Amino acid sequence: MLSGSFPGIAAHLLAASVMNAPAGLILSKIILPETEIPETRAGMAKAASAMATATPGPGRTRWRLGGHSPDGGVIEAAANGAAQGVQLAINVAAMIMAFVALVALVNALLGGLGGLVGIDGLSVQSILGTMLRPLAWVMGVPWADTAYVGSLIGIKATLNEFVAYAQFAGDLGAGQVLDPRSAVILTYALLGFANFSSIAIQIGGIGGLAPDRKRDIASLGLRAMVAGNLAAFTSASIAGMLA
User: pTM of the prediction?
Assistant: First the structure.
């Protein structure tokens, strides 16, 4: 999509993917510190003793998994798995549509209010873009490009990175003048799945698998989104120093 307008972008995307993983882990620990001793800590896991029991046999040890499958056979298990998969896909699709519709509703309200006071094109994306101009400058973007970079970051955070990259590719193809360093930083800053749609996918996907934890997932959604974006911005800052 961007290879024609931005040669070598594949290498930057690959590097950003590798850099974002440890950055996201570290930032998640900073935003939500682990104050208790985890059950999965080395030397403390009790999964083996809880999930399997040793049954001695004639001259050997036989292991039996704890619990019983609710399915009566392979065919029933396959049918139940397919049904659960369809239900999970429906939940995810419904959550995405609901969140996108909510963003569209807020944008419509902001657009109407902006028209009353003489501000055209007021939206969540434009507000985030304006707010993120100083952040883009801190990452190393020249001030002349901060408005454009901030607007694309706002699109990525509000909708998703695919829409932002598509807009980026279209603008470059249409002759958008952008400093090469700004283009590199923007490539790193946009890479990531931290947006409102991802919160919907987490609630619909993980919540469908563990309904009793749906409230916990929803309460952590915004913090996870912030951690993911900060991870991308950290990688972008490093790329800006090296560009």
Answer: 0.74
Checking 220-226 for CB contacts under 8 A at 24+ apart, the result is 220/32, 223/31, 223/32, 224/28, 224/194, 224/199, 225/157, 225/194, 225/195, 225/196, 225/198, 225/199, 226/31, 226/194
| Token pair listed for 11 | 């290498």
State how far the Cα of 173 lies from the Cα of 155, in Å rounded to an integer.
19
Backbone torsions φ then ψ of 103, nearest 5 degrees: -65, -40
**Residue 120, token pair as written in the block:** 């055209």
CA distance 76 to 51: 23
Write the pLDDT tens digit of every residue in 8-67: 778 888 888 999 999 999 999 999 888 887 777 766 555 555 554 444 455 544 445 455
Which residues, other chains included, contact 29 with Cβ-Cβ below 8 Å and sequence gap of 6+? Answer: none
Cβ 231 vs Cβ 192: under 8 Å = yes
Nearest to 237 by CA among 188, 180, 164: 188
Under 8 Å between Cβ of 190 and 238: no
Both tokens assigned to 191: 């890479």
For residue 44, the model assigns a pLDDT of 58
Residue 96 to residue 103: CA distance in whole angstroms? 11
Domain coordinates in residue numbering, the chain: 9-31+74-242
Which pair of structure tokens corresponds to residue 222?
């915004």
Side-chain half-sphere CA neighbours of 182 within 13 A: 22
